[in-house]
Amino acid sequence: MKRGLSILFASTLIASAAVDWSQYYTYEDIALPADVDQQVGGLIALADGRLAACFKSGEVKKYDPAKKNLGPFRPRPADPPRTA
Model's pTM, two decimal places? Predict the structure, then answer.
């Protein structure tokens, strides 16, 4: 019983410790062009500091935080031809 209370007490202390997340992360609002579907399918941080995002429409864009630029990583793929 004492061990269970010790673990509960220790986990409560750890959970209540104040952490300043701004030391580790920054938040930015990135404006998307009007022609981009805003449904994000995935995000990945690239090794050079850029952010790549794939959208539900098929587009993949990269954001360069140094230039504050959102540009195409690759163009949207063409829709496949329909067969009857």
Answer: 0.56
